[in-house]
Amino acid sequence: LGIDCSFLENETFRKFLKLGGDNTGTKIKRKRYTGIMVRKIQPTSGAFGILRNMDVILAVDGIPLGNDGKIPFRRGERVDLGGYVTSLFEGDEVHLSVWREGKETEVSFLVSPIKPLVPTHFSNEPPPYMICSGFVFTALSVPYLEAKGAWSDYYTDNVSYLLGLVNSPLKQEGDEVVVLAQVLAHRANLGYENYFDLHLLKFNGVEVRSLRHLQGLVDKRTGPFMIFEFAPEDGGRLVVLDSDTNDVVTKEVCSEHSIGAPGRLRDY
């Protein structure tokens, strides 16, 4: 569904949400609701703009949802809600009963696979890359992190930062985490040769959304300098390269390292 939820097994939490039960000090009894509370909706989810933070999902397609996030399965058995959701196909419409602001309401939306910001693979294609004055940029991926030993006992601070981006939501189709993988030495990038595993945030003051976006920014650059700003936003590395010599330097670097093309971008 593309949502993050909190379980509601705590009685005080349920009272806070006014989910029903005995009214303290009265003989009036209200229906007792169970479910899980929505905390975040991924921007690319079909639920975005339909579900809200603090909504309580009571039932999915008429199937009641427990406070532990489980639904009835076979006799005497319960399974996680995800077990049901994964049985749906892309484009199926899902209907939810939701407790919102003290009232029960119904919502529905189409389900679709949630694409991660950091992909687990490139569908058997080589990883994308782009070379700019010897700077080799790529899109962050799980294979990249595995190659850097991100899940081993020892890894660098830069890799630790990149690992923290794995579960970040995809805000819009085509977004990528652009990473400086390495610098191929050339006199034009002298002093930057030891920069690697850095998350590129901005190019000439513009936020970089993907490799393709970066390529477009570089192609349409104006002014004498190319300014690259890396994470973290406050105090990250700053790189300044000559704009006028970029095309020549990039060709020389590719020729010296027998690289056939200065870039290869993903198709969406």
Throw out a few tags for this protein.
8-stranded antiparallel β-sheet, 6-stranded antiparallel β-sheet, 16% helix
Explained architecture:
With 268 residues, this protein is an alpha+beta fold. The chain is 16% helix and 28% strand. The longest helix is centred in the C-terminal third of the chain and has 11 residues, at 246-256. The chain has helices at 11-16, 81-85, 142-147, 157-163, 211-219, 246-256, and strands at residues 3-7, 36-41, 56-60, 63-64, 70-72, 78-80, 93-100, 103-110, 129-132, 135-139, 178-183, 198-203, 206-207, 225-230, 238-242, 263-264. Strands 9, 10, 11, 12, 13, 14, 15 and 16 form an 8-stranded antiparallel β-sheet that branches. Strands 1, 2, 3, 4, 7 and 8 form a 6-stranded antiparallel β-sheet that branches. It has a two-stranded antiparallel sheet with strand order 5-6.
